[in-house]
Amino acid sequence: MAEETAVIYAVDQGVATITLNRPHRRNAFTQDMLQGLRHSFTCAGEDASVRAVLVTGAGKGFCAGQDLSIFDGIPQPEDVRTVVLDFYRPMIESIVNLKKPVIAAINGVAAGAGASLALACDLRIMAHDASILMAFSNIGLVPDAGASWFLTRLVGYSRAYEIAALGERISAERSLELGLTNWVTGADTLHEDALSRARQLAERPTVALGMTKAVLLQATEATLDATILLEATLQAQAVATADHREGVLAFVEKRTPRFRGQ
């Protein structure tokens, strides 16, 4: 199947690595690729042995966004709407709904919908020569694939509008200053450093991290009362987990906890 080559999925030591594998096109999206990504995130969610997910791109780029060559000339309005709703939306939602931490290892430019993918991940680590480019306005388009939602949550309205309207390439260091990425590292150590972060998360209490993700994602949209209610509901579930019991026991015994994601 096409998505088996366009998207590579591998699991090792509790980490699922999802690699966008169209380096000759800077990993630009096709429908098959978007379906392959959605399938990969779903597999990671269903596999109990997976406790963290790492997303990266093959070759010199993370993702150049939509591959416009799939359209015959200028895309028709209804075709664009269909691609966004039927392909991008399910893929992005599969990340947001995944109850496990997702890290994007940005190894080159993340442009357009490729930037949307990166921002949809819970955490980002960038190579020092990588960049983020909200390129939509440069060709007379608006941000899509959830970019508006993620960008505004990360940097606020005014800064988000600046980034989207000017369409300028944002360096790794500037991304770190703005809060668009969590870490910057050398290009030659990106994969190793990203994998180290992912394995660190894989050793954490997976169920609690999934609940934390859920409450933080809704916190800026909900009232304080609704947020505390959700916290109470999730805390009642978390306190019954094996990882909570292990955490308490390890604290009493003055040792490092051995969480199992249960």
Concise description?
With 262 residues, the chain is α/β, with parallel strands linked by helices. Helices cover 49% and strands 15% of the residues. It has eleven helices and nine strands.
Distance between the termini: 34 Å
How many helices does DSSP assign? 11
CATH C-level label of the largest domain:
Alpha Beta
Low-confidence stretches: none
Q: Determine Rg (CA atoms, Å).
A: 19 Å
Description:
The protein folds into 2 domains: 2-202, 2-enoyl-CoA Hydratase, Chain A, domain 1, CATH 3.90.226.10; 206-252, Lyase 2-enoyl-coa Hydratase, Chain  A, domain 2. The protein is 49% helix and 15% strand. It has 11 helices and 9 strands. Strand 1 (7-12) and strand 2 (15-20) form a beta hairpin. Helix 2 (31-46) runs parallel beside helix 3 (77-96), helix 5 (147-155) packs across helix 6 and helix 9 (206-219) runs antiparallel to helix 10.
List the helices and strands and how they pair.
Elements: H1 2-6, E1 7-12, E2 15-20, H2 31-46, E3 52-57, H3 77-96, E4 102-106, E5 109-111, H4 113-120, E6 123-127, E7 131-133, H5 147-155, H6 157-166, E8 169-171, H7 172-178, E9 183-185, H8 190-202, H9 206-219, H10 224-238, H11 242-252
Parallel strand pairs: 2-3, 3-4, 4-6, 5-7, 6-9
Antiparallel strand pairs: 1-2, 7-8
Helix pairs in contact: 2-3, 4-5, 5-6, 9-10
